[in-house]
Amino acid sequence: MFYKSKDLSNGLKIEINNIPYVILNVNFTNIGRGQAFNKLKLKNILNNTLIFKTVKTGEKIKAADILNKTIQFLYQNDMILNFFHEDDSEYYEVDITHVKICTKWLTSGMLCEAIFWNEEIISVKSPKIIISKVICDNAVKKDLGTHKNFKYVILENDYLIKVPIFIKQGDMLKIDTEDEIFLSRINN
Fold first, then answer.
1. To 5 degrees, how large is the angle CA 171–CA 172–CA 176?
2. Which of 6, 125, 132, 136 could bridge to 154 as Cys pair (CB 3.0-4.6 Å)?
């Protein structure tokens, strides 16, 4: 499938030189003399780099075969992550050396968003907000700059996170996985 230059819009996923991009901005320019064109701001889906491309009126651009699916994390075996997609009963093995993924938040049974390109997983993203249990709480630290007390706790995924002093072992916490910060305690 191809897009004509007049059909280009923000959010479309296109392929240039066998690399998938998402269009961030389209700027149509008609200078009076000469041919009109679109200036595109593109983000590489594989490595998040930005490029700019000029597309002449009437030019065609290949649509990228991008698909988003919700898949369930099962387990990790060395450098291989195993996922399952319930709708089509497919199992996927993902080599973490070839795919963008943050493994520290993954727990068995967690639903993740996967991006497929040409039927291959190119990215797996854990949920933005997760709930995790405190398994160990350490000594209280004092922040000398703001005079606030805080401490570090270890979550069930063995990740160390800074929390307020009232958090104790066994508490369930809401964690922001993108900013890696404590959001709130879940009342039991």
1. 130
2. 136
